[in-house]
Amino acid sequence: MPSENVIKCSKLIAAKGWNIAFAESATAGRMAAEFSMTKESGQILRGGIVCYEVFVKEQILNVPHSMIEKCTPESAEVTQILAQQASKIFNSKITAAITGLTTPGGSETKQKPVGTIFFHIITPDKKIKHKQIFLGSPEEIVLQAIDKTAALIAESLF
Fold first, then answer.
1. Contact by Cβ (8 Å): 138, 103
2. Contact of 21 with 153, CB cutoff 8 Å
3. Superfamily for the 4-156 domain
4. Domain ranges, ordered by start, for the chain
5. What crossing angle do the helices spanning 4-16 and 138-156 adopt, rounded to 10°?
6. Which residues does residue 18 pair with via DSSP β-bridges, in sequence order?
7. Backbone φ, ψ for residue 24 (5° rounding)
8. Tens digit of pLDDT for each residue in 110-121?
9. Best label site of 46, 53, 81, 148, fewest CB within 10 Å?
10. Residue 30 Cα to chain centre, angstroms
11. How do residues 92-106 score in pLDDT, each as one tens digit?
12. pTM check: above 0.85
């Protein structure tokens, strides 16, 4: 069952007659799945791409290899390009991209521990950049990140 934030966000998007698409790394498709379970899903959900592995980021979403090397796959810079590219692919009114670290073994550092999530959301009126560190199991981090994405979008629509 989708969270209250996802349900509210879906209603707000539908009320505007808009749609949404996703470029998901850390959430691996779970965000699109959560939005697909709302009553408004048929009106608003355009689609999404799971770009978990660097290969997909580079080959399908055209993130330059040099940027991945310089900034890491889980970074604000890469997340912004993912959002821009997905926005073109899906021709969506709202595009949300998300990268981050839900488990150890990625690019985590003291400044970027496991639980760090990067968001980049494009709407017709705004570009929202956000970084947050969540605590919990990988699933708890993913669900908190989805909820935060919905909240960021909903706030931008008022």
1. yes
2. no
3. CinA-like (3.90.950.20)
4. 4-156
5. 30
6. none
7. -115, 120
8. 999 999 999 999
9. 53
10. 10
11. 999 999 999 999 988
12. yes
